[in-house]
Amino acid sequence: MTPLVGTGDLSQRDALVGGDVSVPVGGEHRRYVDLDAAATTSATAGVVRAVQEFLPWYSSVHRGAGAKSQVTSARYEQARESLLRFVGADPTTHLALFPKNTTEGLNLIAYRLGLTRDDVVLTTAIEHHANLLPWRRHAQVRIVDVDRSGTYDVDAVVAALDQRPTPRVLAVSGASNVTGWLPDLAGIAAAARDRGVLVVVDGAQLVPHRPVDVAALGIDVLVWSGHKMFAPFGAGGLVADRRLLADGEPFLVGGGAVKAVSDDEVVWADTPDRDDAGTPNVVGVVALAAAAEELLAAGERNRVHEDLLVQALDDELGTVPGLRRLGPTSGDRLPVAAFVIDGMPHAEVAHRLAREHGIGVRSGCFCAHPYLSRLFGLTAGEVQQFHDDARADRTDRLPGAVRVSCSSATPLADVATLGEALRALTAGATRPVVTAGQGR
Ligand SMILES: Cc1ncc(COP(=O)(O)O)c(C=O)c1O
After folding, report:
1. What's the topology of domain 22-43+300-426?
2. Coil vs helix vs strand at 147
């Protein structure tokens, strides 16, 4: 495809690689409008530069005596320091690991906490499956429910914390990937800590958008993905209280995680090596650290632009006939919005935005089925029908919504383009044939 140069206003951040790619729309090419940042983000030019500069030095970590191995090992360890600095963690109390993404990080920590079926993990109804299923595998899960607006408050968390048995862990999302809603993390974390409950935060959506201060918030474990913060090279971050990982068998076992192995005994390495079995993704880690340094340098600056994006989304979506937003539409939010349009299946809206307007969005349930069921107000019978349809692969019948999501690099003009496109769609402009029911 022929790239169009200079059509985007990517002045908010170092321009994204591919930010000016064009796609075929009708008989012409148009700049691709990427409104799917909550799913994943392209790399910044700075992240790619960091990777390119590192690649000639790429070698094995910790196991080679050669000069390249020394450089690679040093970069790997520096990246741990970058991540700790990025999230305000004290290196004497916390350490950084590099799971491949949030999902792996949460599975790792759910395993490493040594939970039993007698333990309760308190979580909420807004969670992504990645912050539900690992806990369900190891413990009983208690859920803080949402009200009609799709949110919950600190009092609801306190009430659930005070139920017996007292939870061992509170596992919460820092921001919803569906609605962009931001729970009062400071209040929630303080309530948990007052009761001696460990605080694990799924930072997949929060970390790319807002500075997070682990020490100030009293967070024991924070997990996030590099690919959602401009470092799509396969590494994520896990920052945890060192004491939680000091003992016990690691989640992944193998080379690098041990000091000694005989036929019938293993002497595990000290943390963090214990949780670093196998050859690590150093290139991904270099990219992640570069993205962290860029976001740290941007500080609150991105916030101004993101707040404008939130306002623009509210304004544009508010003028589309028959469009109904899901979740809160006021208060502090990320530039993320989920909606349905009367009489138009969610997948059809997403497909038509792509084909007729060159706009990339997501449709479906966004890996947050319990939250979507609540936002739609599904009855128990309807949820059962949803599961029956899913089992039978009746994807055309599955419930879902459309989600548009921006990053700090999204030009404001892209939100205006979305508004125009949605108005054209609802005004009954040309309708191509579309297969309904994509997205999980
Ligand atoms: C809130 C939240 N948690 C967890 C995840 C899982 O992230 P990953 O797929 O990178 O593991 C996502 C991904 O969309 C998310 O939005």
Report:
1. Aspartate Aminotransferase, domain 1 (3.90.1150)
2. coil
